[in-house]
Amino acid sequence: MLLIRSVKIIDSRSPYNGQTKDILVENGKIAQIGDQLDAPNAEILTGDNWHISSGWVDMRVSSHDPGHEHKEDLTTACEAAAAGGFTEIAVLPNSQPALDSKNTLVYVKQKAADQLVAVHPIGAVTKGCEGKDFTEMIDLTQAGAVAFSDGVHAIQNTHIFLKSLQYLQQVNRVLMNRPEDFDLTVFGQMHEGEVSTLLGMRGIPSIAEELMIMRDLKLLEYVGIKSQTPLLHFSTISTANAVALIRQAKAQGLPVSCDIAAHQIAFEDSLLTDFDTHYKVNPPFRQQKDIDALWEGLADGTIDAVVSDHNPQDEEAKNLEFDLAEFGIIGLETAFGVLNTYNKTLSVEQIVDKFTHYPRTILRLPAHTISEGSLANLTLFNPDLEWVFSNTRSKSKNSPFFGQTLKGRALYVINRNKVEKCG
Amino acid sequence: MSQLSVRHLLGIKNLTESDIYSILDTAAQFKDVINRPIKKVPSLRDVTIANVFFENSTRTRLSFELAEKRLSADVVNFSASGSSVKKGETLLDTVNNILAMKVDMIVMRHSSPGAPHYLSQRIPANVVNAGDGTHEHPTQALLDAFSIREKIGDLAGKKIAIIGDILHSRVALSNIFCLIKLGAEVRVCGPTTLIPKYISSLGVQVSHNVKETLQWCDVANVLRIQLERLQVKYFPSLREYSLYFGINKKMLDELDHEILLMHPGPINRGVELTSDAADSRQSIILNQVENGVAVRMAVLYLLAQQ
């Protein structure tokens, strides 16, 4: 039994939203919500300015398990997720082997079965995420795939994209694509612009992202199916025009959604003048006008969700010449803090929705509202707590946020009848 | 001789105008030295320099090596072929192994932009960038500036055209930084596909008309068409390039004023320059090579004082 005293409930779908209440958790469920609850045997959690929401969901995690367990494995990914306040994560299919067969999906689900954090595999669209042959998507859905994507590989082939979009309607799963036309980003290392010109580095132009979004939206329109839930989801968009295109598509009524990586709003391309590979990430850090547009998109709902895009890379993959280093940042433990620190316009409720309600809708996960009798899948947090990101539970340390003071952090996660202290 | 503001020569971008003049003035003195019967001075005696070349180079390596020897430095050479690089050793490990043998300075060529920056943040030796990918080639820009100044005086207000593959050229980038710092007007010229989209943000003019650019300029610095760096196609053929962007003697003769013709070498004769242009009176290509040794002596000498 667990009694959470005087906690402010942040849940736009709950009748208790905005109220400060006591919550009693018993046998993995919310037993009671009220004032001055009495539970003599309960462990008590309480503190200043504590907030509670349904458990946070990260839609985009690279666990590197199976295949590159020296960078991360499912256990450490779950530990890092819990430390960052997440109770559910969706893992990308870009492992080795890829999550393109029942076997690999079962492996992922079983390996993480005992964790507080629920791990949801994202099935590969094509075998090996190579963009050539379809996987058995109906069968993979049966085996637990919550969505389909080729992960870090944008789907280049138009036929494959179109047919996947059509095929997935049969199983009510979303197709997630990270928009990037690879023909335009060959050898690209960073945002194409004045800074890349100054550094003599090959650019990743904004147009490469926008062109693919335009293609995908046209095909979504062509498929012509009405749906209340998104059928197409763009992962980690990064440019002002990308936001505008998706805003327009939503206004048209197309069933589309999108997310950004939390770190995308923190940095500009000018930070790369020192060739620091901790800032090497794809999509790359762009410019202030893009960051401004992302905030507008977050505020008006064009951008549905925020992800960590947690991508652990070991020292050997990062402590290198810039163009030889891998892309990626670990983000599970900093995602909320980063978004909250740089935020100037969103309410706490809006931020929490980006980590809870919308990801669950897109991934077709059961909704969790804070109400009596519902499952206790909860994140306790303090949106105003200042803290320094100084250690990680991930196996890798590739983060530009080490040593930085962030505002807002998760305190406890509760799920599957377990409680863990964050951080 | 004055001091530099930097410990390493990573790029022209990191130099002040006064650094550049210090190097050019020092180089002028060393040029006198290397034209004497005894070409050697003892300035860098007991200084050990490693020339670490992860990319093929003949003239730059030779030029550095001569500069080092004329300053009486001890010189070791390391090149990627037949070395540990092929066995998968990291750059840092390779260089630290060399440094463990008590080397004071590293002259490095590498295919990755920023590789010398990376190294300079991690090792105690002075680092000289001898070309990092498509980023910078500072000693080339310095010797180009030296050569122009030697022939036509102060660079301020001079019109310098850089013609050819601007997109893949570290020579172009370093030249642009250097010439602008010295007050020259700079124009880049080449096929539309070989000009970086954002190049004008560096303060240069852009043209795609070679004839008109030659007429505009006081100096034409013609770049090698870097076939080895063109991993994807940017123009249809060398034939078409030479027909529409190549420079020949007739074009030089038709100008209403005499210009200087430069090239960082090695020349693709018949592609960017015809032989009659490369060997013409206007050409100072071999002067550049000679000045290269003096300029590199100046760089090494000044860095060793730091």
From TrEMBL, chain A:
Xref: Gene3D superfamilies: Metal-dependent hydrolases (3.20.20.140), Urease, subunit C, domain 1 (2.30.40.10)
Pfam families associated with the record: Amidohydro_1, DHOase
Keywords: Pyrimidine biosynthesis
Organism: Runella aurantiaca
Domain Amidohydrolase-related: 241-409
Stretches that traverse the bilayer: none
Any one GO BP annotation for this protein: purine nucleobase catabolic process
Protein name: Dihydroorotase
Any single GO CC term annotated in Swiss-Prot or TrEMBL for this entry: cytoplasm
Domain Dihydroorotase catalytic: 54-224
Domain of life: Bacteria
GO molecular function, a single term: dihydroorotase activity
Signal peptide extent: none
From TrEMBL, chain B:
Keywords, sorted A to Z: Pyrimidine biosynthesis, Transferase
Binding residue positions for L-aspartate: K87, R170, R224
Keyword Transferase: yes
Residue ranges of domain Aspartate/ornithine carbamoyltransferase carbamoyl-P binding in the record: 7-150
GO process terms (BP): 'de novo' pyrimidine nucleobase biosynthetic process; 'de novo' UMP biosynthetic process; amino acid metabolic process
Top-tier EC class: transferase
Reactions catalysed: carbamoyl phosphate + L-aspartate = N-carbamoyl-L-aspartate + phosphate + H(+)
Pathway: Pyrimidine metabolism; UMP biosynthesis via de novo pathway; (S)-dihydroorotate from bicarbonate: step 2/3
Quaternary context: Heterododecamer (2C3:3R2) of six catalytic PyrB chains organized as two trimers (C3), and six regulatory PyrI chains organized as three dimers (R2).
Protein's name in the database: Aspartate carbamoyltransferase
Provenance organism: Runella aurantiaca
